[in-house]
Amino acid sequence: MFNPETGSYELRLDPQIPGRQGPQPHGQHAPGPHGHAPHGYGGPPQQPQQYIPQQNGQPPHGQAPGPQHAQPQHAQPQHGQPQHGQPHPGPPQPPQPGPPQPGGRHPGQAPPQPGGRHQSHASAAEAPESLQEPRLPSQRRRGAAGGSGGPGGSGTGPGPDADGPRSRRRPKPRKSKKKKALIWVAGGLAVVLFAVGTAAFLIYRKLNGNIDKVEVAGEDHAAVIDGPVNILVMGTDKRTGKGNDGYGDMNSPGHADTTLLFHVSEDRTNATAMSIPRDMITDIPDCKTKQEDGSWKTIPGTYETKFNESLGQFGRDPGCTWKTVEQLTGLDVNHFILADFNAVKDLSSAVGGVEVCLAEDIDDPKSKLNLPAGRHTIEGEEALAFVRTRYSVGFGSDLSRIELQQQFLSSLIRKMKSGGSLSNPKKMYDLADAATKALTVDSGIGSAKKLMDLANDLKKVPQDDITFATLPVLDNPEDDATVLMDEAKAKPLFKLLAADKPFDGAKKGKKGKPVKKSEPGEVRVDVVNGGGESGMASATAGWLLDEGAGYAAEAGNTPDLQPETRLEYGPDQAEQAARLADMMGLPKSAMKKTGENAGAEGTMTLTLGEDFAAPGTPVEAPDKAPDGVQNVKAGDKNVCAK
After folding, report:
1. Are 30 and 36 in contact (CB under 8 A)?
2. Residue by residue, what is the 3-state secondary structure of 247-267?
3. What is the DSSP string of 584-616?
4. Cα 106 off chain centre by
5. If we measure between CA atoms, which residue out of 171, 168, 164, 170 comes closest to residue 135?
6. Measuring CA to CA, which of 170, 360, 440, 508 is 20 to 30 A from 617?
7. How far apart (Å, rounded) are the C-alpha atoms in residues 270 and 500?
8. Nearest to 403 by CA among 272, 282, 395
């Protein structure tokens, strides 16, 4: 409402709400000290009127008295109130109490309105202050519980017989049996989840405590990386663990008895596990090992040593085998996992046994394995005897035992990927407990979580695309108990892995027509040095003759360095060129066919470029592994040891 005396709009509250404090409409007064309203208070609410100034207390000519000055016809002036048209004598005096009227009214008070819209002022005044709460707007008020607020009421306030102001809070509805049941179920579920969470934490802590880890000098790799992964998997013949006194060498710190370099492709579509024979002669580099007091000690390297001495001997730890494999293959290792005898026994039992196949009977007094030909499910001690057997299979060498181990690991992978072990919580726990107890790992995967992350990453590889292969070796003419690396086949294999190509071919789909190759003795070639070290052409010619070439000779140097190796040949030398390319590991891009035939006595020209490393080393990674490299697929169930 606009007030011309103040020149502003004012908010006028309903004066008939008990307990309301604040400014009253013009011409009315707040209740007196006894809770009695002045004359005119308590009547029915009036519609707001425009404020019109009066002359000498009278309304303008022709207008009826406004609500602020009009008196009800049935009411008599109270003591101390001004008469109509007289000036106000001063502050209003408290009204004199009279005998109460029915319903708690005093004389001069307006009767309650039908529907109980106005509460008795005497009752409101006599109520404690804590109960005199301001009334809420009508849309937020409610009637008495279970009624409509009074006779003829609308449910917006208490009826005329109410004992006092009612609470503004809605009474809580009684819970149905269905709701009570849901509450009990939710509470029980919370307890179960807490118990499961606690158990999971305790299991995780136990698995963490099982793991032994070794820090490798200069190596700190994340558990999971985006690129290709190379993991060194080793088995030691150290007599650790209960019941292993009869295995391995007495009082020995152990050796690298079984070693595989597990290469996983960047896109996780294929993997190659390359076994490294324990009796292969190689060089072992210097390596640093961490001592118990936290210091580092350098273990001197040795030349022309059996590979298995890279672990355990002379204080060497798994980090020394790590460095030996990197020097041997040219590949960067990311992690290592070292397993003892119990790993084979406990893991095979945890998955419920591993199926193996024998083409012939095995009776090995040293490994104590006695099995007839056929298929068998083995676990525990029998599984360990199977992977250690070598004298009763093949040639009785470590190479024959490697094939048994590859068959066992392939079958173990199939069993684990079949879902039976991974979907059974107890078997899964037994498997994790057995694995962590029997493993030693590098610090990069030295926790249960990190091992789990790595396992989840590696399990993406389909089992049918996991290839187990053996590093190509030759008999050592100076010691028939050892072998030498076959560089002509091994180096292309290393290059294949370094280029992250699948073992059995980088390209899938339709194969081209095979090119016919001549016999090695038909190859005739002149070798020119176009970018290699001095004497490289002569060395290459000699190597070709050793490989069976019919003619190979050094033909000098090119005047300028040649960045790429190339082989020039005539149309009538295509079969010779195919054989030489196979012997040298030349890519298709190196083949240059001329327009004229060379004739029966003609020679091809091989120009060694800057990309040529050494005779027998492929210039470019081959599309697949060289012929003759032993291998078996993890998904092949028909492999039987002979």
Report:
1. no
2. CCCCCCCCCEEEEEEEEECCC
3. HT--GGGEEE-SS---TT--EEEEE-TT--STT
4. 81
5. 168
6. 508
7. 9
8. 395
* CA neighbor of 19 nearest in space, from 96, 98, 126: 126
- Judge whether residue 239 has pLDDT over 70: no
Outline where DSSP puts E strands in 302-456: 302-306, 335-339, 354-358, 362-364, 369-371, 374-378, 439-442
Query: How far is Cα 357 from Cα 506, in angstroms, rounded to an integer?
Result: 31
Are the CB atoms for 261 and 331 separated by under 8 Å? yes
Q: Specify the DSSP element, H or E, that contains 124.
A: helix 121-126
Quote the tokens at residue 233.
Answer: 């998997």
Which pLDDT does position 186 carry in this prediction? 62
CA distance 497 to 587: 16
Round to whole Å and give the CA distance between 61 and 81. 25
pTM: 0.60
Rounded to whole angstroms, the Cα distance separating 387 from 145 reads 84
- In 3-state terms, what secondary structure has residue 496? helix
Gap between the Cα atoms of 416 and 426, Å rounded: 14
Residue 122 pLDDT grade (very low, low, confident, very high; cuts 50, 70, 90): very low
Question: Which is more confidently placed, 584 or 111?
Answer: 584
* Angle, CA 145 vertex, CA 141 and CA 147 arms, to 5°: 90
Contact 526, 603 (CB under 8 A): yes
Beta bridge partners of 376: 356
Give per-residue pLDDT as tens, 57-110.
Answer: 444 444 444 444 444 444 444 444 444 444 444 444 444 444 444 444 444 444
41-45, 255-259, 305-309, 432-436: range with lowest mean pLDDT: 41-45
Please state the rounded mean pLDDT for residues 583-611: 89
Total count of residues recorded for the chain: 642
> What is the token pair recorded at 103?
């319903």
Segment holding 320, helix H or strand E? helix 318-329
pLDDT in tens, 293-333: 999 999 999 999 999 999 999 999 999 999 999 999 989 99
Predicted confidence at residue 283, as pLDDT, reads 97
- From the CA atom positions of the chain, what is the Rg in Å? 50
Average pLDDT on 604-611 reads 92
For residue 8, the 8-state DSSP code is E
- Beta strand pairing status for 271-275 and 466-470? parallel
The confidence score (pLDDT) of residue 139 equals 45
Q: Which residues pair with 386 in a beta bridge?
A: none
- Give the CA angle between residues 424, 425, 430 to the nearest 5°: 100
Largest Cα–Cα distance of the chain, in whole Å?
Answer: 150
Residue type, 84: H
**φ and ψ of 167, to 5 deg:** -65, 145
* The residue type at 490: A
Cα dihedral 320, 322, 328, 332 sign: negative
Residues 6+ positions from 639 with CB-CB distance below 8 Å? 357, 407, 410, 632
* Euclidean distance between the first and the last CA atom of the chain, given in angstroms as a whole number: 109
- Quick one: CA dihedral 136, 137, 140, 146, positive or negative? positive
Burial (0-12, 13-18, 19+ Cβ within 10 Å), 278: buried
Cα–Cα distance for residue pair 17/132, rounded to 1 Å: 10
